[in-house]
Specification:
Length: about 140
């Protein structure tokens, strides 16, 4: 994706062990330069090594805060070992709960993505307003 997003006007191509593609173009290019951050998800045994090697951030499947804290610590050690800056972490499926978000911040989560119900537009907007209100009052 980085080759496709950042190839300017030239076509991008790639030949690798698991994927290959011939010359192709993609427009419009991303507004973020040189490209949007690439987040890697998952909780598998090798995920953190892959994040530290290739990704701009980690967005794992939901897990308990204590397990999450230990995994974030390991990720940041791997980043330091690879001479990379701190890798941002995103938690998704979070509840709009001030104490829960504060706990995530304490363990090293940079961003929380809240769950919005798959429902009508009006119900979804009410849920978003309630979540925003929770943090505006805090």
């Amino acid at each position: 994706m980085k080759a496709i997003w950042g190839s300017g006007d030239a076509p991008a191509s790639f030949e690798g062990r698991f994927v290959s593609f011939g010359p192709l173009w993609s427009w419009p290019k991303p507004a973020q330069s040189p490209w949007p951050p690439v987040l890697l998800g998952g909780n598998g045994p090798r995920t953190l090594e892959r994040v530290a090697r290739f990704a701009d951030g980690w967005m794992p499947n939901p897990m308990g805060a204590d397990v999450f804290a230990a995994r974030i610590d390991k990720l940041q050690r791997l980043a330091a070992d690879a001479e990379r800056p701190r890798i941002p972490v995103t938690a998704f499926g979070c509840r709009a709960d001030v104490d829960g978000v504060a706990r995530y911040a304490e363990i090293g989560v940079d961003r929380c993505v809240f769950w919005v119900p798959a429902t009508s537009r009006d119900d979804a907007l009410r849920a978003l307003d309630a979540a925003a209100g929770t943090f505006l009052r805090a």
